[in-house]
Amino acid sequence: MIDGTKTTEPRLRMPVGDAIDVLVGLRQDDDVVITCMGSSREWPRRCDHVLDVHHVPSTMGGTVPLALGVALAQPQRRVHVLTGDGSLLMNLGVLVTIIASGAKNLTIVVVDNGVYEITGGQRTAGAAAEVDFAGLARSVGFPHVAHFRDLTDWRRRAAEVLASTGPRFIWLEVEPQREDYLIKLPRPLAEQLVRFQRTLAAEGE
Amino acid sequence: MFQGEEIVAILVELGVTHVVWVPDSALGPWEEALESSPSIELIRVCREGEAWPIAAGLMLGGKTPLVAIQTTGLFESGDALRNAIFDFDLPLFAIVGARSWLVENSTDSAKRFARPVLDAWGIDYRLIESDDDKPRLAEHYRRCRQAGKPGAVLVAEGRM
User: Fold this and answer.
1) What distance separates the 2 farthest-apart alpha carbons in chain B?
2) Which of B44, B60, B67, B79 to mutate to test the interface with A (most CBs of A within 10 A)?
3) Looking at residue B1, what is its pLDDT?
4) In angstroms, what separates the C-alpha of A156 from chain B's closest C-alpha?
5) Can you tell me the distance from the alpha carbon of B106 to that of B126, in angstroms, rounded to the nearest whole number?
6) Residue A10: what pLDDT?
7) Is residue B156's pLDDT more than 80?
8) Side-chain-side CA neighbours of residue B32 (13 Å)
9) Does residue B62 come out as left (phi exceeding 0), alpha (psi in the -120 to 50 range) or beta?
10) Which of A57, A72, A197 sits opposite B87 (nearest CB)?
């Protein structure tokens, strides 16, 4: 884990697939996982679970609030949301909303590649400003905030971070995907939602 | 128009579990009653674009949310509304405070665009302009729930 000190050296970033592999490996069977943008490309390549929702098509910055809604409705289970840095920047206020809501079972994973990957790799304002996402989360009141650029470090600490008191905020700096960045879902959103709701309803009976 | 205890009684009767809101001057006085209700959870959001996906997540998770915002917030949150109602195909319902509605000769563009915007999104809505119209809220809510479609009521503002 690293501190919030800015550096002039080139930033070390993890391969996005490897970073997400770590989360896939720690996902518990009754966890909800909600993804958007690049994570909706990477996650289904590695995992296909009835409690996965890939928010495609999405709304700008809507995935973290969507996950918060699920977390509030299902307080007994962990909800993990994988958002891009660009997506989070479009709705930063939601971090405040999460703390105000009192939700404890939510994990926000910011998969930060510094660019709008899906539109061809333009730099985000956050990258240009060298935003300290961890500092933002801490100032809002997240009780547990973690920041990783190094894959070995992330692998070593991930289980501990996910076991911490929620809501959790995890900032992963990853390499942008220059090729093969298009999202191909295993099934359309409507089918995902039907099986998701059926599973929650069945488990709630 | 609606008083706090009155609106809470209606929403509880309708089975609403969560109110996701950004208050305005007409909805704001409901805060204390909403917060003290043991049956309803009040979710405060920072902008209306959060309200729709949070409500969508609540509904996917088995709850019965209601979005409460002003017309200005409706305009602001159009893309979020589009995604929740049309891409997710969720029958969300909203109470929308209609800014300046009761102000005669108002030049407030929020008044001018309220109905055209709801029409453009294809949202079935009813207008509540006076105490006599109040039953429309529960009637329209039930009708929308029964049909499994989204809906809204516009609650006129601008004169207490």
Assistant:
1) 44
2) B60
3) 83
4) 32
5) 21
6) 59
7) yes
8) 4
9) left
10) A57
| A70-122 pLDDT, tens digit each | 999 999 999 999 999 999 999 999 999 999 999 999 999 999 999 998 888 89
Please name which of A201, A97, A64 lies closest in space to residue B61, comparing C-alpha atoms: A201
Mean pLDDT over residues A142-163, rounded?
97
Q: Closest to A189 (Cβ–Cβ): which among B50, B51, B87?
A: B87
Check CB contact under 8 Å for B50 and A97. yes
Give the pLDDT confidence score for residue B45 in this predicted structure: 98
Give CA–CA dist B106/B72, Å, rounded.
Answer: 15
Q: Do A91 and B18 touch (CB under 8 A)?
A: no
Backbone angles phi, psi at B128, to 5 degrees: -115, 105
Cβ contacts from A onto B, under 8 A: 107
Residue B114 phi, psi dihedral angles, 5° rounding: -55, -55
- Give the predicted TM-score (pTM) of the model: 0.95
Chain-chain contact of B46 with A60 (C-beta, under 8 angstroms): no
Cα B103 to Cα B74, B132, B158, B160, distances in angstroms: 19, 19, 5, 11
Task: Please give the full DSSP string across A68-130, using - where no structure is assigned.
Answer: HHHHHH-TTS-EEEEEEHHHHHTTTHHHHHHHHHT--SEEEEEEE-SEEGGGT-EEPHHHHHT
Helix ranges restricted to H, chain B: 4-14, 31-36, 48-60, 71-76, 78-82, 109-121, 135-147
* Average pLDDT score, chain A: 92
